[in-house]
Specification:
Number of strands: 0
Shape: globular
Strand content: under 5%
Structural class: mainly alpha
Largest sheet: none
């Protein structure tokens, strides 16, 4: 009996890994950053007496927010999965991945593009239903629209500004939806949480601008694949050298501007500045694919340091 069950278990593990590989590249970029943003912003809101004591907002305490971490992670991942499948099933994406990410599910022939398409059509409604019950239907539907624009209408290929704009909006949908899950939970609570999100509406706009102006960091190590698919990413439009200077300058500006917007003391500037300076220097001086990949990983950590600023401000107010 055990001999008969073993192939079935292996097959199950094989398919689980195949699904996992669809989102592997974006675990650091979307799942990690969005979850950190949600937990940090929600905790900051719960510690701010102005909002924590509001009878209309009903913000849970830090402990309750932390308990919802698995649910936050799941919401981000289940909304990311169909988007990634849609992206990776495209012929031009398969060609690109064959060059720089051959381990992905479709290039490695773990799954056919047709089967992946069927999975996508099943998973999008599942994500919508789950988001409805978690009070994040607005963000979910926005992500569907952005996904079609980015993948099927090739919004990611035609213009670097358009690509960055879609990325900025997508990051905000993921981070605001994840925050709503962290402080809400069900439709009744979600209506209350929606008001809390409006409190940070200006901050989500700022973070969208941060992503819009700096996310081209991810384009630097992907230039071989982008050239193969004809994507007009920033390095190909303005040149590799100019793109690197744009990244270095914009990252440096946000290192000063975002802590200033939150009226942080000098301690609030330290982490963004250290990480930002490292990114700027590496972008200008370490000009090879391997180094650019590490720089992009640091960009994700730097983005989290920006997300940390509301919590720093909330802790200062409570002193």
């Amino acid at each position: 009996m055990a001999v008969l069950e073993r192939p079935s278990a292996q097959q199950f593990a094989f398919h689980v890994k195949s699904v996992w590989l669809f989102t592997y590249s974006d675990l650091k970029t979307i799942v990690f950053t969005s979850t950190c943003s949600a937990l940090l912003n929600a905790t900051a809101l719960s510690l701010d007496n102005k909002y924590a004591r509001s009878s209309t907002l009903n913000i849970p305490g830090p402990g309750r927010i932390l308990e919802r971490t698995p649910l936050v992670l799941f919401w981000v991942w289940i909304n990311l999965l169909p988007f990634n499948i849609d992206n990776q099933r495209q012929p031009q994406s398969i060609e690109e991945a064959s060059m720089n990410k051959p381990w992905r599910t479709i290039p490695s022939r773990r799954l056919s593009a047709g089967t992946a398409t069927t999975m996508m059509y099943i998973l999008y409604p599942i994500a919508v239903i789950i988001s409805f019950f978690l009070g994040t239907i607005t963000q979910c539907l926005a992500l569907v629209v952005l996904g079609v624009w980015y993948n099927d209408l090739r919004g990611s290929d035609s213009n670097p500004l358009l690509r960055n704009m879609i990325n900025g909006c997508g990051f905000v949908c993921f981070s605001s939806g994840a925050m709503q899950v962290a402080i809400g939970g069900f439709p009744v609570e979600a209506r209350v949480s929606e008001s809390a999100l409006k409190v940070y509406g200006w901050w989500f706009f700022v973070t969208a601008c941060v992503v819009f102006s700096t996310v081209e960091t991810q384009d630097m190590p992907d230039q071989r694949g982008d050239a193969a698919r004809g994507r007009k990413s920033l390095p190909f439009v303005v040149g590799d050298g100019s793109a690197r200077w744009i990244i270095a300058v914009t990252v440096s500006i946000w290192c000063f501007l975002t802590p200033w917007l939150w009226e942080c003391p000098m301690s609030g500037y330290v982490t963004p500045l250290l990480l930002g300076a490292t990114i700027a220097v590496r972008t200008l001086w370490k000009r090879n694919e391997k180094a650019d990949k590490l720089t992009f990983r640091l960009w994700n950590v730097w983005l989290v340091s920006i997300y940390l600023l509301p919590l720093i401000k909330a802790l200062i107010i409570r002193k």
